[in-house]
Amino acid sequence: MRFIKTIAMLAAMGSDIGIGAASVFRPTKPPAVPLAVRSPYLNAWLQGESGCVLPGEWPRFWTGDIQGWQGYVAVDGVAYNWMGGAPGPGPVNQLSLEYTSTKSIFTFDVAQKITLTVTFLSPVYPDDIQRQSLQFSYVTVTAKSSDGASHKVQVYMDVSGEWASGDNSEKVQWEFGTESNLYYLKFWRENQHEFKEANEIASWGNWYLSTGFHEGLTWQIGQDTTVRNQFAGNLTLSNSQESEFRPVSENWPVFAFSHDLGDIKDDEVERIFTLGLIQDNVIHFARQNNTLEPVRGLWMSFYNNSDMEAVVSFYNDYRHAVETMSLLDQRIEKDSVEAAGENYSLITTLALRQTFGAFQYAGTPEKPYIFLKEISSNSDIQTVDVIFPAFPIFVYLNATLSRYLLDPLFEHQESGSYPNKYAEHDLGTFPVAKGYPNGDDEAMPLEECGNMIIMSLAYAQRTGDTGYLTVHYPILAQWAQYLIEDSLVPANQLSTDDFAGTLANQTNLAIKGIIGLKAMSQIAQLTNNKDDFKDKAEDYLMTWKAYAINYDASPPHTTLSYGDKDSHGILYNIYADRLLGLHFVDQSVFDMQSDFYLTVANEYAVPLDTRHTWAKSDWEMFAAAVAKNETKEMFIDKLAEWVGKTTTNRAMTDLFDSITGDYPSGGPTFVARPVMGGMFALLALPKE
């Protein structure tokens, strides 16, 4: 499985198979290409270190670990590689890569005879929890003659046991089967450990590679070299499986299909593959009395608890998926261009799958949950200050989804399982949501109280569900009391940007708390409760302006912390004022910051604050959304340029150096995080 350099060298040397000009990228070359990205465990990418060229490169899990996934095509008896790093057939020539919000589309030239198009479709259904509950993705392979002549074509795909276990010493088992005109290869880790992970990969569940029956379909399960050589040498597979179950890395068992497409001339011929994971129970959640209980996958309610019904339904739903996702792609592109131009569309389209790829849908149709994994930073579950930067994507696509994310946090804390008076930071480590009965979570008290109040009001505003605020009013008021005590002059504490360390009197953190109080005033009025928050918020805002703004600077700006006139930072928390339509913070503050950002911008971004040259792309977009046009364009143009030029080579990071565009030197490496939902900050604002 580990022969990446072999094919890379062949690709560099070229051959007689049509290696020519470099691949074209539309709308740009991304840091990494989403291939199959539907959940925290189905999360495979083509990393940018390959130049985003698929032939000769192994797809990788978001961690960077290889997930064996090999593709071949044979034309007139000669086999070529269109995906994967296995030795053997030489690579096809990649002509182009195009990404949309839900698709990654590769076009290849095969020996100047066949145009091969491979589309990786990871659907996102913001309005359909049934379809979104499945951890499956599509791959379609389409062949067409490019020279007008007729050519015999066969296509091949396999996956390895690496998908089923993050520990390659663990044994995998397998089987072949058919169901309703569908052929499937099922494989799973022999030692199933529910709610456990190995190197971030689930240690439980069943994986399925499936394809529809057509004349010329063959399959094989066996050692990687044996199966792949069988196709390369014979252009077909043996319809057989090895009987000896074994560890992932022992003679590397792979699970393969081949389709003989026959003679290709005038018409395109397409074959569809699906790949995904079935898990019955998906989350361990302490709802009441600190007792962990399994929460079923939401899919089970819709598919009669049947793996096969789910697998077959997903495959048969392909045409609907294509039509629905084309509409969603068009909607996001159109709305993004209208809001801020082509460069903004370039950013939002790359963020959709990454954001939804961090979610696990659970529960029942009557009580659905969405559990979030804080991918790559520490794997926390339901991190409030990760939900908050992602929140614009829910407000834009379907605000009801935000309730499914907030519900587990409310349920756990309202059960009395969390002792602190401020809001809990997270619920544990994914996939175990046990909470912190001793109150020993990572303390971000002002941050999380403000976040929970702001998000709750935003949900109610966009859905009209003020009853939600009534139900949760007691704990919301409890958190608001904390804001009264701490938001004007914040104690030494962490904010969401915890990598920067603790700091007292944080200007940006303070304004979040003050806006949170103003939001609580709205909540009190909407729920017919006494409003004890409006006057306090207005008084605090007046004092905050005196504490926070360096009027002596040219141009004036807010400081990072009160009194530190040599400091500054992005005041991204004022975005919440506009998201909620409060118009509480003076327009002069927005304009002042907007003018100031132009004077401190670096090559790729405005630094988060004066402690580093690091930038956070989610907060860049929060600031852009409420800035003057010139400043908004500056933020967006710089981030779009970064997307196409960054030397980071994994799923899009939200933390990078604003000068070099690389990962921050000495800082954390964030990849594939759902905070990229913040790219939709402009689209989430209420219509004026």
TrEMBL record:
Q: Which InterPro entries match?
A: Glutaminase_GtaA, GtaA_central, GtaA_N
Please state the span of the N-terminal signal peptide per the UniProt entry: none
Q: Superkingdom, according to UniProt? A: Eukaryota
Give residue ranges for domain Glutaminase A central.
341-683
Which positions fall inside the Glutaminase A N-terminal domain? 102-335
Extract the PANTHER family matched here: GLUTAMINASE A (PTHR31987:SF1), GLUTAMINASE A-RELATED (PTHR31987)
What this protein is called in its record is Glutaminase GtaA
The organism encoding this protein is Podospora comata
